């Protein structure tokens, strides 16, 4: 069965990265040994993760994870990878909230040692709901869990978002605002327009995505609500769980200063993406898990903030995901893995869902 397209396997060699990492670390911890270097089989959609151990009596970390910016020569998913920004966000989240973000340690902004900037953080042990095959398909630990266990995971996960939004001081996050004019939401959407323009530069544009941007303007909230720190890629596939309890919240490269509903809409839609995909292949999926109405209700109970304009925000999430899907498809074409069809909209795996949202016929 097919699932969402994935970027091509890394162009980097793990053994070579391990050697270069050991040389870099030896300057910071003379005599330290780097062992057990590995690249997870299902690596990130853009930045890459290396796992390794350090052997040294004075090291602040032993079990480590390294987050490495995407190879700039490998037709990257995003135009830039600001590792100092990610390092700063994770440091601040650890300082100001009780959200279990991995403890960050070294930051290397110089691309020389590993070919791109990176940072090192503590490695958390546990399990992650899989993307491939999605956790909504049969045959993985979350699908095999009981209804009560999934309900517990859902409760813990929506609590992460509520606590992040409530606890993080807004004044500390304004550095995430994109350049431009207008409200945080307007700047966020404008940045997505710029990203879309970059994706289709010199290639066929997507009429569907352009209709979705037009529909956003028609649905624009009269009251956008307060801006808070957004996790950005707010979904359970970016959480490590011990049993059904979160122990590490990962992937902060899309962190933003935006209304709460931008994060919540992404959480709602990314689950629907997997659920719709699963139903399309003849499986029931998890129809009672992470339902929009349940997430909105519980978020309101936890924060006192009733989510508003969620048709706008779920459409916006589907639109943003569509741009990423289009970039990944064009990346596959670049590497000769697929042919570009006459209709570029067909490259967007969830084009039918996005079209239904544009027409107001999805929910």
Description:
- Helices cover 41% and strands 13% of the residues.
- It is α+β, with helices and mostly antiparallel strands and 363 residues long.
- Helix 7 packs across helix 9 and helix 9 runs antiparallel to helix 10.
- The two termini are 26 Å apart.
- The model has no long low-confidence stretch (mean pLDDT 93).
Short description:
With 363 residues, the protein is of the alpha+beta class.
Query: What distance lies between the first and last C-alpha atoms, to the nearest angstrom?
Result: 26 Å
Report helical residue fraction.
40-55%
Strand content: 5-15%
Regarding quaternary structure, how should these chains be classified? single chain
Secondary structure tally: strands: 9
Low-confidence stretches: none
- Give the count of helical stretches: 10
Approximate shape: globular
* Class based on secondary structure composition and strand pairing: alpha+beta
Q: Give the C-alpha Rg.
A: 20 Å
H and E order: HEEEHEEHHHHEEEEHHHH
Strand order of the largest sheet: 1-2-3-5-4
Q: Mean of residue pLDDT? A: 93
Task: Characterize the main sheet.
Answer: 5 strands, antiparallel
Task: Spell out the key features of this protein.
alpha+beta; 5-stranded antiparallel beta sheet; 10 helices; 13% strand
List the helices and strands and how they pair.
Layout: H1 14-28, E1 33-38, E2 48-55, E3 63-68, H2 83-96, E4 104-108, E5 118-122, H3 141-144, H4 147-167, H5 184-199, H6 207-219, E6 227-230, E7 239-242, E8 245-249, E9 256-259, H7 260-280, H8 292-303, H9 310-334, H10 351-358
Antiparallel strand pairs: 1-2, 2-3, 3-5, 4-5, 6-9, 7-8
């Amino acid at each position: 069965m097919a699932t969402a397209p994935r970027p091509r396997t890394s162009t980097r060699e793990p053994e070579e990265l391990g050697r270069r990492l050991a040389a870099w670390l030896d300057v910071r911890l003379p005599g330290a040994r780097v062992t057990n270097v590995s690249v997870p089989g299902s690596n990130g959609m853009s930045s890459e993760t290396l796992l390794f151990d350090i052997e040294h009596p004075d090291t602040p970390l032993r079990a480590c994870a390294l987050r490495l910016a995407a190879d700039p020569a490998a037709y990257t998913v995003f135009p830039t990878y600001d590792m100092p920004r990610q390092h700063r966000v994770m440091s601040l989240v650890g300082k100001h909230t009780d959200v279990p973000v991995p403890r960050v340690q070294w930051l290397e902004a110089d691309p020389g040692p590993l070919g791109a900037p990176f940072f090192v953080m503590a490695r958390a042990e546990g399990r992650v709901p899989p993307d491939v095959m999605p956790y909504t398909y049969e045959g993985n630990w979350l699908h095999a869990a009981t209804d009560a266990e999934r309900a517990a995971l859902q409760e813990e996960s929506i609590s992460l978002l509520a606590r992040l939004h409530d606890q993080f001081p807004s004044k500390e996050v304004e550095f995430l605002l994109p350049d431009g004019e207008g409200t945080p939401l307007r700047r966020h959407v404008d940045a997505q327009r710029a990203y879309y323009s970059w994706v289709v530069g010199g290639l066929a544009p997507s009429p569907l995505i352009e209709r979705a941007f037009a529909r956003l303007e028609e649905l624009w909230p009269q009251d956008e609500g307060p801006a808070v720190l957004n996790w950005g890629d707010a979904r359970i596939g970016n959480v490590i769980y011990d049993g059904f309890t979160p122990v590490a919240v990962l992937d902060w490269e899309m962190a933003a200063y935006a209304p709460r509903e931008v994060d919540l809409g992404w959480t709602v839609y990314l689950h629907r993406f997997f659920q719709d995909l699963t139903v399309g292949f003849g499986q029931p999926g998890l129809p009672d898990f992470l339902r929009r109405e349940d997430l909105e209700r519980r978020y309101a109970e936890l924060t006192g903030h009733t989510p508003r304009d969620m048709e706008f925000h779920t459409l916006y999430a589907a639109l943003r995901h569509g741009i990423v899907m289009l970039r990944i498809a064009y990346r596959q074409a670049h590497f000769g893995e697929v042919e570009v069809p006459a209709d570029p909209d067909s490259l967007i795996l969830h084009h039918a869902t996005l079209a239904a949202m544009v027409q107001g016929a999805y929910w």
